[in-house]
Amino acid sequence: MDAMQKEMKVRGNVPAGHTLYLDCQSGIAGDMLVAALLDAGADEAAMRRALASLPVGGFEIAVTRVKKAGIDCCDFAVLLDAAHENHDHDMAYLHGSAYAAHEHEHEHEHEHEHEHEHEHEHEHEHEHEHEHEHEHAGHHHHHHEHRGPADIARIIDATDMTEGARALAHKTFDILAAAEAKAHAVPLDKVHFHEVGAIDSIVDIVAASVLLDSLHIARAIVPVLVDGHGTIRCQHGIIPVPAPATLNVCTARGLPLRQADVEGELVTPTGAALVAALDPAFTLPERYLVRTVGIGAGKRTYERPSLLRALLIDELPGDAPAARPSADMTPAQVVKLECDIDDSTSEVLAYAAEALREAGAREVHWLPIFTKKGRPAYQLQVIASPEDVERLELIIFRETSTIGIRRVAMDRTVLARGLERVETPWGEVTLKRVTLPDGTERCAPEYDECAAIARAAQVPLQQVMDAARAAALGK
Predict the structure, then answer these.
(1) What's the DSSP call for residue 323?
(2) What is the DSSP secondary structure assignment for residue 8, as one 8-state letter?
């Protein structure tokens, strides 16, 4: 993840009005969507509150980082207890137990090549791909809870979430219920959610609904759902891919499909239902500005990396110049880390500050202080985005002598801003344009670029900066 993308992450404080674009080239499942939304800056704290309030037990969640084809992704996993875990393997669902044994051997042959990814895959080897795996429970040897639409509705109503999130969760399950009723030719009130009503799918749908609601998006765009081919094993036998419930969702809600040359299920019924619940448009604007990108990992291993991208974008008019997103597009909430150091050399302090800046700290300050017994010392203050806190704390512990770090969450008021290029008599300069609450604007040229031009052209720095401001006013 580059520095600009990291700076644009806004965990729990994504500005309203953006469009959510879901890039489903590798399919979509509930856990993939949850992970992508978390990575894009949705409100993880709200999600955790909602899941903690669910009137069902037998699960924990884990939010971690994994790599897919070398790409850093967020992973969301529902960890079930022994009474609810299905202990099945994905390849056994898709191709039978003989294939699963061969695939397991194949994975071990290449475990050094994909060490990081497979550590995570093996850690969750019991496959929490959630949405459709529950349907694949035909060879389970223990009881799975079956829930009807009324049971699901009661669970959603008892969960601590906003009314917007609750409505989205209800809508998703309603879409699924209609799809399952059609697939099994039973009345809607007779549908039993042996798969989508399982605990991990309830968790996925509630989590995704809370996160989507927290983004306050203006609209969603999903150009196409890309699914695989072949067959899949379910409670009722072997069925083709796309699964009947998935096809029914797409048929009823008019979602476009495309088949990939991948043997296996890429789009799960719950993934399709969550997309349908967003009532998405199918066409991207001709030009758009990407504000932030989230990448969510799937649990299955196919020829095509199992990942989903969620992009927050702003549509641009066809004839409007695009202002570059600013590296200063900061979260409305930051975290201040601080500690006192009284036993390190200036070289050590300087090295620690440099390491923190390189790792993505927004600001690093050393303040002279007096500690106990009147000893002169320095206080380290690091301003960090919430998602970077844990990583930066590790650097502080590693590079300084401190044994404790104070942590304070801080709300900020930030102005809308953007970067653009302007022409001066000596070359182009990057300029930051800031919009105040009353709609007025002010501009500031980037110092480093202006200083480099001033040295090269042997002209006063202020003259270069004045020329950049004048060019901005003329745009």
Answers:
(1) P
(2) H
The per-residue DSSP string of 30-90 comes to HHHHHHHHHHTT--HHHHHHHHHH-S--SEEEEEEEEEETTEEEEEEEEEE-TTT-----H
Q: What is the CA 243 to chain-centroid distance, rounded?
A: 26
| Predicted confidence (pLDDT) at residue 169 exceeds the cutoff of 90 | yes
pLDDT higher at 129 or 399: 399
Largest pairwise CA distance in the chain: 82
Predicted local distance difference test score (pLDDT) of residue 107: 39
410 by Cβ neighbours in 10 Å (0-12 / 13-18 / 19+) ranks as exposed
| Start-end of H helices in 278-414 | 346-358, 389-399
**Using alpha carbons only, what angle is made at residue 4 by residues 447 and 409, rounded to the nearest 5 degrees?**
95
Cβ 285 vs Cβ 33: under 8 Å: no
DSSP string, 382-422: EEE-GGGHHHHHHHHHHHS--S--EEEEEE----EEEEEEE
pTM for the complete prediction? 0.57
Average pLDDT over residues 368-375: 86
Reading phi first (left if > 0) and then psi (alpha if -120 to 50, else beta), residue 82 is in alpha
User: For residue 410, which of 389, 391, 431 has the smallest C-alpha distance?
Assistant: 389
First-to-last CA distance in the chain? 32
At residue 264 the predicted structure's pLDDT band, cuts being 50, 70 and 90, is: confident
CB-based contacts of 474: which residues, under 8 Å, 6+ apart?
A: none
Closest to 190 measured CA to CA, from 153, 233, 146: 146
pLDDT at 331: 59
Distance from C-alpha of 423 to C-alpha of 427, rounded to nearest angstrom: 6
What integer best gives the mean pLDDT of the chain?
A: 79
b vs e for 427-446, b when ≥16 Cβ sit within 10 Å of the residue's Cβ? eebbbbbbeeeeeeeebebe
Would you state the pLDDT for residue 13? 42
Higher pLDDT, 417 or 106: 417
Which pLDDT tens digit goes with each residue over 75-101?
999 988 765 555 443 333 343 333 334
Residue 153 CA, chain-centre distance (Å), reads: 27
Specify the range with the lowest mean pLDDT, choosing from 63-67, 275-279, 286-290: 286-290
